[in-house]
Design brief:
The protein is an alpha+beta fold and 636 residues long. Among the domains are: 139 residues, TolB, C-terminal domain (Neuraminidase), CATH 2.120.10.30; 259 residues, Rossmann fold, CATH 3.40.50.1820. 19% of the residues lie in helices and 35% in strands. Strands 28-29-31-30-32-33-34-35-36 form a nine-stranded mixed beta sheet, sandwiched between helices. The chain starts with 7 loop residues before the first helix and ends with a helix.
């Protein structure tokens, strides 16, 4: 193996330490770190991090989401079973390690609604126990687990609360495509703000101030790019706080006590912060001028003196710092992946590609070292999921993995991606498998014209919507790509809609608006027409499918039926199934097995480099090769 080949384990194994969060009183720091190869929560005094001890002892998928409560003693975390996303909420005492399941119900999905600063002995928890489609809201005692109903959910997507846990506003998507913000008055919910269908996907409430007197609203009405407004709940008066000409208003940094916005972020090609309160400008200047890359604040002390800041750039993996606002100092807490500090990482370049109908597609290109000789290279087109999300600049393990193996790597924010204004996101409606795919074709054509990509050696790779895009690309354009990789991607839009989790019912309207209404003849025609399953006989190039058996979003049947259709038509396909995973691969053993197989698959069909697959990489995982072992050169 070349000394320049970065080991897969350094990119896709567990991080050394990650997700640091400081307790509100500033005395303790918690983070995730592997214990027997499983991510657990560790806690240590802030001034004696060497005394860290594990306070959870998970032995399965590891813990991914946790946070402190304001009592300074307890943390709350989520855990599901095998990736089924039926999360339970647990309260953990950081001093003695005792744990309590706050949602001890079978077959439910729960999440944390709010962790209050004023009401400290209880948190808000949402549970779909009464009706699997909708989450009712409860306050739950951290000490005893005793719960009290706050509001029964009568068909709402979410609620907004004041600091006393009173539900003041609710959000609802209507069958005709509108989005409504409703207010509670005399026990009834009445419309307060209504967004027409063109604004429904881009506009939404952010949060209430602590007193429950003002709503902070992301709003695209009467404009293209989403702006930030402050709405007085008593008068309905709306005041513009922030706007940007190139992109939507993104993440907000708020005052811990009042919840008033202090600063906002905008991400066009790169992430930028702008102050709303001049008192925070010195902090933005210090952090943005510190050569740490793109940064964000992950936790803060209650007095707001200490921040935990995470930062990364294209060639610098994630690092977490302790920022002292008074002293203006940064202290490194840990590197998430210290093995990569001196690795031969490749720079990422933002580029804007013009689509055939004139849209600007903000994209990100990473070139392998071999591209320095200016010859076209084999290329991997990476398609993001969602599709209502976006690709961004920064450290991307997939880009670094593929560039290190000799491929040019291109990620494209195709129409339907978020953050670039409502016209851009709405341009994806009705265009799954058509103009959204055309954008990808235009990006490949650009890469060929620029001398970046060898047109005979281009792969299309993606997960979730990106997996669907890979299937579309291979069936709609059977001669363009040399091969494709589909991870948890839907193959049949009719069965996708029929099997989505019941608790997605509140925003089902948005899916119907985007891909077709199964209740109408025209909608069913559109769903069938845009489903790659029905074009399986057109697929002529090698395909690798990977699926989590417990995936609640894209059911296993989506991959089953595509693999069966291809096999029935004599088209070679390799199909990997992970019985203990859901919508993606959380266990590091499974991530490493998948990437080992995918790397070998790409090397065979694109001609890049590959780290040899070690027998233990597959043996330590749960991967089952359902079809195509011979295609992969592996034993069945």
């Amino acid at each position: 193996m070349s000394h320049d080949l970065i080991p897969r384990a350094h990119l896709f194994g567990n991080p050394t330490k990650v997700s640091a969060k400081i307790s509100p009183d500033g005395r303790l720091l918690a983070w995730l770190a592997p214990q027997d190869d499983v991510l657990d929560i560790f806690v240590a005094p802030l001034d004696r991090l060497g005394e860290a001890r594990a306070v959870t002892h998970d032995r399965k998928r590891g813990i991914q989401f946790f946070n402190w409560t304001y009592d300074g003693r307890r943390l709350v975390y989520l855990q599901d079973e095998g990736g089924d996303e039926k999360f339970h909420v647990f309260a953990l005492d950081a001093h003695d390690g005792s744990t309590r399941d706050l949602t001890p119900f079978e077959g439910v999905s729960a999440y944390v609604g709010d962790i209050g600063r004023k009401v400290r002995d209880r948190i808000l928890v949402a549970v779909n126990r009464r009706d699997p489609r909708y989450h009712d809201l409860y306050t739950v005692s951290l000490a005893t687990g005793e719960s009290s109903l706050v509001v029964e959910n009568a068909g709402f997507a979410s609620f907004l609360f004041d600091e006393d846990y009173n539900a003041r506003l609710a959000l609802r998507d209507t069958p005709d495509g509108r989005r409504e913000i409703l207010r509670s008055k005399d026990g009834a919910w009445t419309p307060f703000i209504v967004f027409e269908p063109e604004d429904a996907r881009s506009s939404s409430p952010s949060h209430l101030d602590a007193a429950g007197k003002a709503l902070f609203l992301r709003d695209s009405r009467g404009r293209d790019k989403v702006a930030l407004y402050r709405v007085d709940l008593a008068t309905g008066e709306s005041r513009l706080l922030a706007e940007h000409e190139k992109a939507d208003i993104g993440h907000l940094l708020t005052n811990e006590a009042t919840r008033e916005p202090l600063a906002y972020a905008v991400n066009s090609e790169r992430l930028e912060y702008f102050a709303l309160d001049p008192r925070i400008q010195p902090d933005l200047d210090f952090l943005s001028g510190g050569d740490i890359g793109d940064w964000s604040v992950s936790s803060r002390t209650e007095d707001d003196r200490l921040w935990v800041v995470g930062a990364q750039s294209d060639t610098k993996p994630f690092v977490e710092y302790l920022y002292d606002r008074d002293a203006k100092t940064l202290r490194v807490l840990h590197h998430a992946r210290p093995e990569l500090v001196d690795a031969p990482l490749r720079p990422m370049r933002p580029v804007t590609i013009t689509s055939r109908d004139g849209l600007g597609l903000v994209s990100y290109l990473t070139l392998p070292k071999a591209a320095e000789n200016r010859a076209p290279q084999p290329m991997a087109l990476l398609v993001h999921g969602g599709p209502w999300s976006r690709d961004s600049f920064g450290f991307n393990p997939l880009h670094q993995w593929l560039a290190n193996r000799g491929y040019a790597v291109l990620s494209v924010n195709f129409r339907g991606s978020t953050g670039f204004g409502k016209a851009f996101v709405n341009a994806g409606d009705g265009e799954w498998g058509r103009r959204m795919d055309d954008d990808l074709l235009d990006a490949v054509a650009w890469a060929v014209e620029q001398g970046v990509a060898d047109p005979r050696r281009v792969a299309i790779i993606g997960a979730s919507y990106g997996g669907y895009a890979a299937l579309v690309g291979l069936t709609r354009n059977p001669d363009l790509y040399a091969c494709g990789v589909d991870v948890v991607g839907p193959s049949n839009l009719e069965t996708l809609l029929a099997t989505i989790p019941p608790y997605w019912e509140s925003f089902r309207t948005q899916f119907v608006k985007a891909i077709g209404d199964p209740a109408t003849e025209d909608g069913r025609r559109l769903l069938r027409e845009r489903s790659p399953l029905h074009r399986a006989d057109r697929l002529a190039k090698p395909l690798l499918i990977a699926q989590g058996a417990n995936d609640p979003r894209v059911a296993k049947t989506e991959s089953d039926q595509m693999a069966a259709a291809l096999e029935g038509k004599g088209v070679p396909v390799a199909y990997l199934l992970f019985p203990d995973e859901g919508h993606g691969f959380a266990r590091p053993e499974n991530r490493l097995a998948f990437h080992a197989i995918a790397e070998s698959f790409l090397a065979r069909h694109l001609g890049g480099l590959a780290e040899p697959t070690r027998p233990e990489e597959l043996k330590n995982s749960t991967v089952r090769i359902e079809k195509g072992a011979a295609e992969l050169g592996l034993a069945q």
